[in-house]
Amino acid sequence: MLTGRCLCGDVGFEVRGTPRGASVCHCGQCRTQSGHVWASAHVPEADLTITGSPSWYAASESAKRGFCARCGSFLFWKAHDEDTISFALGALDAPTGLTLERHIFCDDKGDYYEIEDDLPQLARS
Prior knowledge:
The protein is mainly beta. The chain has a single domain, classed as Metal Binding Protein, Guanine Nucleotide Exchange Factor, Chain A. The protein has one helix at residues 28-34; strands at 2-5, 12-15, 20-25, 38-44, 48-51, 55-57, 63-67, 74-79, 84-88, 102-104. Strand 7 (63-67) and strand 8 form a beta hairpin. The longest helix is centred in the N-terminal third of the chain and has 7 residues, at 28-34. It is globular. It starts with a strand and ends in a 21-residue tail after the last strand. 29% of the residues are buried.
């Protein structure tokens, strides 16, 4: 089981099962909300237990973003029409045993950096 929490500890989470799709998102929303890029993985909703009360922001017609209202940590991303939920890799307690698999939304990446590893780079997701 993996565990994680926000910076202040008001919102925590436990991940059961095997996380999938460990990726770095370069989309404009993730860059704006996180201040750079957002690394996440996903599991079926039933495999994620959230403690505390995250706030949810309707980021688009198709998805919402979960964060801690007290410290601002961006922790979750959830598409309305999917039964999975993504969680922030940076909020996990170590060791995670996870390895990044890819970069997504590379067409939207900021102009101030380059992607310099050998992971696959998807234009969208």
